[in-house]
Design a protein that fits this description.
With about 425 residues, this protein is of the alpha+beta class. It has 15 helices and 6 strands. Strands 1, 2, 3, 4, 5 and 6 form a 6-stranded antiparallel sheet that branches. A hairpin with a 5-residue loop joins strand 3 and strand 4. The radius of gyration is 25 Å and the shape is globular. The N terminus and C terminus are likely disordered.
Length: about 425
């Protein structure tokens, strides 16, 4: 199986995204002036050079260890995290690769190589719907030869063929594009077209062996094995990216909660902050604080057990019109939410949501979720978020729309968040 994997990987069936060794963003031309850079950056550059040396020697395991140290030293460098994600793929660690490429897209949302690599990591885990969502966003901008093959791997070979056929007819089409089209035909079960297309770049003496390799590749065995074979790697047991490498938010300025009558309680909106996802599988530990919380370092916040939100009567809150009462829709079971504030009591949360609906134009498809958190030395806070989303990029788009209207927010994983029960009390005004 491993020999077949390497033959397939060497056959031209590779995506342009899977090449390890890209230079990190912002660090390409700095090696000539190390003395003028800060000590931490100078150390990071030296560590980067060691990582690249290990890659060139084919020692991907050692390179990965060095890359993790590199990201720990320079956590907000998108290029270093891209290199880390590439090396997770080269070591067959697809769960960790998903985290790394998601972090790259948080720092550099328009990075098509990171999006395509993320789709590949998701496909390897069987998360084909999420992978297809990433590919749909890339289908109009990325190279058809790459996106087409990714669609085929994610279980849509006909979609791949639709993209790859015109690309293969282009005068400057490469052998890689034609071979990717041939594999898409094979995955769709059209072996006659697969043979004819592959024969354009494969000698007659090698053609039968190539098709036999593809037959083994196309046989049922799961997405994990197919992606691993394509990359020429062995899929490994993966505990996930180390928590210490999680992309943390920049420390926000704590907001001041002023006691005020219910009828005048404002929505606390802090200065806009970067959209930041939390690495997967750490929902039990709160790594970030909301715009109205103080970031706690070296000690995770303690999440209180979810409980129904109990509201005091609001006699002083009277809308100008009788609100249109609608049934609350479920907020979904996705792993990610967009946090928009944190408040001292449930009443302030309810008023904040009512005002946020009007300010940010939330429709009935945007539902509030809430949880409580106890920070050391602080009172209990009630978090207000919009949720829930299956993919971090879905949540990021909502957060970006909030910021475009002057609001503040960030993306995090769910940590006890549950739909609130008063979502229909203050709907958008009719």
């Amino acid at each position: 199986m491993k020999s077949i994997a390497f033959k397939i990987a060497a056959s031209g069936l590779v995506m342009g995204t899977t090449v390890v060794g890209c230079a990190p963003a912002g660090h390409v031309d700095r090696t000539a002036s190390l003395d003028a850079t800060p000590v931490a950056e100078r150390n990071a550059l030296k560590l980067y050079e060691r990582t690249q040396s290990a890659v060139q020697q084919g020692n991907h395991s050692e390179a990965l260890t060095l890359a993790e140290r590199l990201v720990e030293l320079a956590p907000r460098d998108a290029g270093y995290r891209m290199l880390l994600g590439d090396l997770y793929l080269k070591n067959g660690r697809f769960i960790s690769a998903e985290s790394a490429f998601s972090d790259v897209l948080t720092l550099d949302p328009r990075n098509p190589r990171a999006s395509l690599s993320l789709a590949l990591a998701l496909t390897a885990q069987g998360k084909t719907q999420l992978a297809l969502g990433e590919l749909d966003e890339l289908s109009e901008t990325a190279a058809p030869g790459d996106v087409g093959l990714a669609y085929a791997l994610a279980g849509q070979p006909q979609r791949a063929i639709t993209m790859l056929e015109p690309a293969a007819r282009e005068p400057n089409a490469t052998g890689r594009v034609r071979q990717n089209l041939a594999l898409a035909y094979a995955l769709a079960g059209d072996w006659q077209k697969a043979r004819v297309t592959a024969s354009q770049d494969v000698s007659p003496a090698d053609l039968s062996e190539r098709l036999a390799q593809w037959a083994e590749f196309a046989s049922p065995g799961g997405n994990r094995n197919q992606v691993a074979m394509l990359l020429g790697v062995t899929a490994a047991e993966d505990p996930g990216q180390p928590v210490r490498l999680a992309l943390a938010a920049e420390e926000p300025q704590a907001a001041v909660f002023a006691e005020a009558p219910v009828s005048k309680a404002p929505v606390v909106i802090a200065a806009p902050a970067p959209v930041v996802p939390i690495a997967p599988d750490v929902a039990a530990e709160v790594q970030y604080a909301a715009a109205a919380e103080t970031l706690v370092k070296a000690q995770p916040a303690v999440i209180a057990a979810p409980a129904p939100v109990t509201l005091a009567p609001l006699p002083a809150f009277a809308p100008s019109k009788t609100p249109r009462i609608e049934a609350a829709r479920p907020a979904g079971n996705g792993r990610f939410v967009v946090q928009i504030g944190a408040y001292k009591n449930p009443v302030q949360v309810e008023i904040a949501w009512s005002q946020a609906q009007e300010r940010f134009g939330f429709g009935p498809d945007k539902q509030p979720v809430s949880t409580t958190v106890k920070l050391p030395g602080r009172a209990m806070l009630h978090r207000l978020s919009v949720g829930s989303f299956e993919a971090p990029r879905q949540a990021a788009r909502v957060c970006q729309s909030i910021k475009a209207k002057g609001g503040a927010c960030f993306v995090r994983t769910r940590a006890g968040d549950a739909p609130v029960q008063w979502a229909a009390r203050h709907t958008a005004r009719g």
